[in-house]
Design brief:
By secondary structure, this protein is mainly alpha-helical. It has one domain. It has 2 helices and no strands. The protein has helices spanning about 5-20, 30-40. The longest helix is centred in the N-terminal third of the chain and has 19 residues, at about 5-20. It is flat and about 30 Å long.
């Protein structure tokens, strides 16, 4: 598994977790950008 494939797998797992934990409360683009800045959401 390449590093990129691993990151994509992690992103998918995070999305699944997020949907389970935060159902009905979608994140805004601003919130997503803030999470990326803090390193909580990693971009490929």
């Amino acid at each position: 598994m390449t590093k990129k494939e691993y990151k994509e797998l992690l992103a998918d797992k995070y999305k699944a977790w997020e949907e389970e934990k935060i159902v009905g409360i979608p994140l805004t683009k601003e919130e997503v950008e803030e999470l990326k800045k803090k390193g909580i959401i990693k971009e490929n």
